[in-house]
Amino acid sequence: MSTPTAHYGFAERWLPRLVLAPSFLLSLIFLYGFIAWNGYLSFTTSRLLPSYEWAGLVQYATLFDNERWWVAVRNLGIFAVLFIGGSMAIGITLAILLDQKVRFEGAIRTLYLYPMALSFVVTGTAWKWMLNPGLGLEKLMHDWGFTNFTFDWLVNSDMSIYTVVIAGLWQSSGFVMALFLAGLRGVDDSIIKAAQIDGASLPRIYWKIILPALRPVVFSTLMILSHIAIKSFDLVMALTGGGPGFSSDLPATFMYSMAFTRGQTGLGAASAMMMLATVAAIVVPYLYSELRKDNNG
Amino acid sequence: MRNLKLGLMAASMGLAFSVHAAEVEVLHYWTSGGEAKAAAELKKMMEAKGNKWKDFAVAGGGGENAMTALKTRVVSGNPPAAAQIKGPSIQEWGDEGVLTSIDGVAKKEGWDKVLPPVVSNVMKYKGQYVAAPVNVHRVNWLWINPELLKKANAKVPNTWDEFFVTAAALQKAGIQPLAYGGQPWQDSTVFESVALGVGGVDFYKKAFVQLDPATMSGPTMIKVLETYKKLKPFTDKNASGREWNLATSMVINGKAAMQFMGDWAKGEFLAAGKVPGKDFLCVAAPGTANAYTFNIDSFAFFKLKDKDAVKGQMDLASTLMSPEFQEVFNLNKGSIPARTDLSMAKFDECGKKSAEDFKATSAKGSLVPSWAHGMAMHSSTQGAVYDVVTQFWNDDKMSAKDAASKLAAAAKTK
Amino acid sequence: MANAERTSSERFWRFALYGALLFAAAYYLLPLYVMVTTSVKGIEEIRAGNLIAMPTAITFDAWSKAWSSACTGVSCNGLSGYFWNSVRMVIPAVAISTMLGAINGYILSKWRFPGSNLVFAMILFGVFMPFQVLLLPMAQTLGWLGLANTTTGLVFVHVVCGTASTTLFFRNYYVGIPDELIKAARLDGAGFWRIFWRIILPMSTPIIMVTLIWQFTQIWNDFLFGVVFASGDAQPITVGLNNLANTSTSVKEYNVDMAAALIAALPTILVYVFAGKYFVRGLTAGAVKG
């Protein structure tokens, strides 16, 4: 906090707050007001449309009894771990490779980055084809004479969530690459030079010096990826529709189909609250540490 | 919330809200071949009456996205003039107090005289018409490509035992017996026909209309589930997620021999220029020749603020029920008119058969609502039952007994 | 790689490096390749051939059909109308949310006041909201505001939901601008607005690029809000694409579907191809500093 000095005028002191007020009120009313409203709904008997008849914890009890909900939660776990971990691994690797002064860097970078430009609806449609056993990769392999080749994850209940991971990685890992490339370019060259003169090997330099310097980037990337993971909705809708059965359901699609397709607004609201609680559990500590840092810095 | 509302009202005083006069906005999900043609006919007729048609089509998943859009529109206090809603959902929307009565039109045109009670009861909320039916679909059909049956020397099945003999013969001849689309609503469509054929009409009513838990988990249900699961080896593994009309086109193009589907599938056959009785056969699903699962498309009408739009609504209600529209629409869509006073001369043999069976089963009491198509249960119960059926179909480790007890639990969903 | 003398092992590593980069490029390109080739094949060829094969005869019929004559419900005007709806929506939404983000970021980094961190935290949490939570209450609110299913309403929704991310971007960037600059300007008698226009904005090009690209992509590609808050003639292109791709007569025209998907994706792809370097440059300039 910079303390206001004496020559701050009255207007100067209040103007920033005034200018900020609209945005603040917008988020207060819309985001927090709606969260509260949604929270209230989760304790009501709301069905087709919101109603305000108090029902206590009934919706939560129903939710925790619902097998499909737990499938969705488990899927989110699988998806989040593989998607975040995979994007990080691929992104960091590609960034390091690209940082080796390669030719055509700009073109290659654009290639890696463009999937981010596509909507999940488009991504889902394209991968749905590629992974469809009768149309895509499997058929291609058969046509080439590898008749034993099978790749039927898309239509296999046990594996369908992994197809969502594949498409998700394709979409987001290039973006992670861009973030890390930016981070690598921001690392001070003189430290690396000094380490090289000391005879440290390249992998060692990366491991010991450069990656630790990228900690803030790792952190913001983790944040961005976890929020993509929690919100993944269009991708599942376009790729598997939550199928086969409901084997690739995620909490976001679960909430959508309960609240909107099935007229169980109360149950949908309860599942949304659980999602919010999860997000809060991840984000609040992060925000806290962010702001602590600012106060000290 | 109240104070906030007032504040926002005050804030929005400056924003006048206007709708073009006599514009009739209709929310529907008829976006595929025969259905889109039928919807275009409706638009033409409305425009001939001097109304401006505002199309609000939302595709996908048997109207799932359309229902989402409808809900937000109603919540925002700005519903469309009419929306495609059917079955018990009409009552649910009625309970929310957002539907408007079209009883004036219905009385003037004598709807009660031309609609069978089983249909008109669904269209009324507290004794007043709030919706207009446009058709009756029969769901328990089996569509057959006769050429393929001939190739395999197999005969048209009338019972489930015969069905499996036919399917095995087809498979032996290297023909895929069953075209199948693996989406939850399609799984349940097939399952429903199996249940009606294996369990019979009384079992069907007890289980799916009265939701009796003992019947839901009883030995007959287990047998139904086992029979249903026996179909799986006769489908291809790429069925997962396939749209129904793509499965139908497999039968049309000779890639598969049979499909269980309601008679909207006929619209696809006709759109492909196929002749019923020659290029394709329509027979009742095995064991259900004397029963009829009905699925009625209807439009419910919403309360509007705008007077001009109300006139458009009444025009729409009367157009939907007019003999001309019911005829042209159903010729396109594969269903039969909801009005029972129309000549079926222009219809093909499948349509004629459907109309005869509709009257006959109605008299016998074996006319039953299709629960898979939202004619018998609330959407939440129906969704929960969908989940079990779909899970059972896809999960080869689940026993029929477990599935039956899950069904009983799902039937309790409020 | 400062060494000028190339040993054979080094050459091997270079080779391996390019191999790995090319392999990754193939992975990223494959779906696009499939989409593009499929969209210029005839329907017969698609059914007979396989996915990866090069088209034997290139035809752009599918493209013209997707753009101007494919049917979505009762209207058969292709995607062109939806496309312009999206353009009309995306420009104001991106401009407003970027501007708000810039001013908010400026205040939250350079004009702190007691509690400003809390304000920032609250706005930031908005980045992580699952948007499904907003649908019903937002619908009700838009109804009260008289903005239900208008393009204006859709712009409003995107601004409300997008300001959180843009604020985050700008604040993190501005934190890196030395406070001394501001102090010096204040001593010269410049006020709140003047510092913003004269000093801060001219330094903001990289982050403005990042924010514009990010917001453009997000808003252009949104499906959920489009399907829920826009009706018939205001629907954005993602909804049009969904209507078209789910509209299948007995013959599923994969080539038209793919052409439609590409049309829907074209603006954002072009933005990345032509402005991608500014995006990476902007990130380098400090948008990702933790």
Q: Please, could you describe this protein's structure?
A:
- The complex is a heterotrimer of chains A (297), B (414) and C (290).
- With 297 residues, chain A is mainly alpha-helical.
- Chain A has 13 helices and no strands.
- In chain A, helix 3 runs parallel beside helix 7, helix 7 (160-185) runs antiparallel to helix 10 (215-231) and helix 12 crosses helix 13 (265-296).
- Chain A starts with 9 loop residues before the first helix and ends with a helix.
- In chain A, 48% of the residues are buried.
- By secondary structure, chain B is α/β, with parallel strands linked by helices.
- The two termini of chain B are 28 Å apart.
- The model of chain B is unreliable at 1-21 (pLDDT under 50).
- Chain C starts with 7 loop residues before the first helix and ends with a helix.
- Chain C folds into two domains: 2-59; 80-287, MetI-like (MetI-like fold, Orthogonal Bundle), CATH 1.10.3720.
- Chains A and C meet through helix 1, helix 3, helix 4, helix 5 and helix 6 of A and helix 1, helix 4, helix 5, helix 6 and helix 7 of C.
The helicity of chain B comes to 40-55%
Question: How many discrete domains of chain A?
Answer: 1
CATH 2nd-level architecture of chain A? Orthogonal Bundle
Give the radius of gyration of chain A: 24 Å
Structural class of chain A: mainly alpha
Main sheet overview of chain B: 5 strands, mixed
Shape call of chain A: flat
Mean pLDDT across every amino acid position of chain B = 88
Number of domains of chain B: 2
The neighbouring-strand order within the major sheet of chain B is 2-1-3-13-6
The fold-level CATH name of chain A is MetI-like fold
Measured by DSSP, the beta-strand proportion of chain A falls in under 5%
Q: What fraction of the residues of chain B are assigned to beta strands by DSSP?
A: 5-15%
Instruction: Please give the number of β-strands of chain A.
Output: 0
Outline the low-pLDDT stretches of chain B.
Answer: 1-21
Question: Largest chain-chain contact?
Answer: A-C, 104 and 93 residues
CATH class call of the largest domain in chain B: Alpha Beta
Helix content of chain A: over 70%
User: What is the structural class of chain B?
Assistant: alpha/beta
Overall 3D shape of chain B: globular
Oligomer kind: heterotrimer
